[in-house]
Write a structure and sequence with these properties.
The structure is a homodimer of 304-residue chains.
Chain A lengths: L4 H8 L6 E5 L4 H12 L4 E6 L1 H10 L8 E4 L3 H13 L5 E4 L4 H9 L12 E7 L7 E4 L9 H17 L6 E5 L10 H14 L7 E6 L1 H5 L1 H7 L11 E3 L3 H13 L4 E7 L5 E2 L7 H17 L4
Parallel strand pairs in A: 1-2, 1-4, 2-3, 4-11, 6-9, 7-8, 7-9
Antiparallel strand pairs in A: 5-6, 5-10
Helix pairs in contact in A: 1-11, 2-11, 4-5
Amino acid sequence: MINTLNEILEKTKNREKPVVTIAGAEDEEILRAIIEAQKLGIANGFLVGNPELIKNTAYLHSLDISPFEIVPSSDTEDSSHLAVSLVTEGKSQIVMKGQVLTSTFLKAILDKDKGLRTGRLFSHVGIFEVPNIKRLLVISDAAMNISPTLKEKVDILLNALEVTRVLDIEMPKVAVLAAVEVVSENMPATIDAAILSKMNERGQLKGCIIDGPLALDCALSKEAAEHKGIKSKVAGEADVLLVPDIEAGNFLYKSFIYAARGETAGVVMGARSPVILTSRADSHQSKLYSIALATLLSLEGLYA
Amino acid sequence: MINTLNEILEKTKNREKPVVTIAGAEDEEILRAIIEAQKLGIANGFLVGNPELIKNTAYLHSLDISPFEIVPSSDTEDSSHLAVSLVTEGKSQIVMKGQVLTSTFLKAILDKDKGLRTGRLFSHVGIFEVPNIKRLLVISDAAMNISPTLKEKVDILLNALEVTRVLDIEMPKVAVLAAVEVVSENMPATIDAAILSKMNERGQLKGCIIDGPLALDCALSKEAAEHKGIKSKVAGEADVLLVPDIEAGNFLYKSFIYAARGETAGVVMGARSPVILTSRADSHQSKLYSIALATLLSLEGLYA
């Protein structure tokens, strides 16, 4: 079982190296991340974008991009489509957003004919290492699905379980988060949590232990759950935090980074390949961890 | 300007002591908090509940409750109503939930005839001291209003500003939080954020600087905002975090405590007196801070 982000790095070093294609490689931080990943033996890279701008960026920051092939594109839309096509052609195993708009990037990924659709829901899975918490925490979906339905929550969970599987978490504990532990008609998050718990109990959702509604304190702290009189196999031991909507998930995500000083790796699941969609504000380290996570998924995940 | 929870304690010591009435005082933790508040010269107390149970609780834990008057009640509903009536009769200035159900307690507070209604919206205001963040952060509403409308968000903000006023924050910076910084039709939180920002610009909401939509990273970190190219007077300096709904607020609240190891004080605003509504899982220290905050509001707030 993997307990730190660094263990993900270690587990992907010096194995078969998937090729990460960067859509819009004209970005210092992204270049640094792929260079380091290549040096560590985690991944190779294709740099899609304007060749002169990519070379200038590398030159200005003294970055050695000689290990990488540059794939010229005419604009950011073209960069996105080219990156996707390298995956569909089997030349690349991972696609990563660089200096292109998220909307442009996702449009290319989600394209019905030429994109990376599989029929499964696309969702973001974030892994967090937070000081004082001795295991990795998975949050989903904090970045793609705005206000998922119950059915979409099931798909989000299945995507998250694909990540916990490569993290060797044998029977992941899933907390379906809400503001309270009681089921309340007025709070849809609690209703869906109750339903998902029961579906798990009935064997409709396998390979994990689901409990909810749980507030975050109960998901993270056994003592808090005991104080509240909540008996739960998930309390204090949650591996996966299933959030009701993008705001709730995003605040938790950012709080883990900006208040609790944690680190993160993230990947978009549901596509034909792992998709890396880091934010400009993410740290350099976080971008590297995300590449390593995508590599691990590419090597050990369901990607054929 | 008050920057730590301890400064709130200091600012309330040895002044006029308001009387905190505890609805359901048969609880060790609550008794400890009021005893300490009394010793520090922050508040006096009325203990409403079953006199024998209160005395037994004190005896079992060697707590000296001799400074306090016990007000006998027949059950928890009666405790709640009695506590409220002590405030309406002017004998007490603050009411605090003890060993009674939140729903029972709030029913008494919100009672149309005998409750503490003022015509203003009731909302929870939480203050957080988080390691690594050099100022207090106010979150609202993380506990009472489930999915507030725009109008309710205005009222929630006004209640929060009443708290920042007694904290001597002269021109509080308010981040209206969302998952992103762009206004998106698909994300109601961003729409309300845009509207509230403009209302502030037009002078319809005074005494603060409002900006939103802002994601939490931009609210807390100037660097994150710069990375994203966001220019905002609030970025990196937010005092108030206005959240879109109870889940998003609650996750942030709990994350500040259970992941970032922060401390909190909380109060319900909008009533005829400050209302203290701590959770069983709150620390002893947090209960004391909440009493101090309520005292400060009672001494320097708008309560006539």
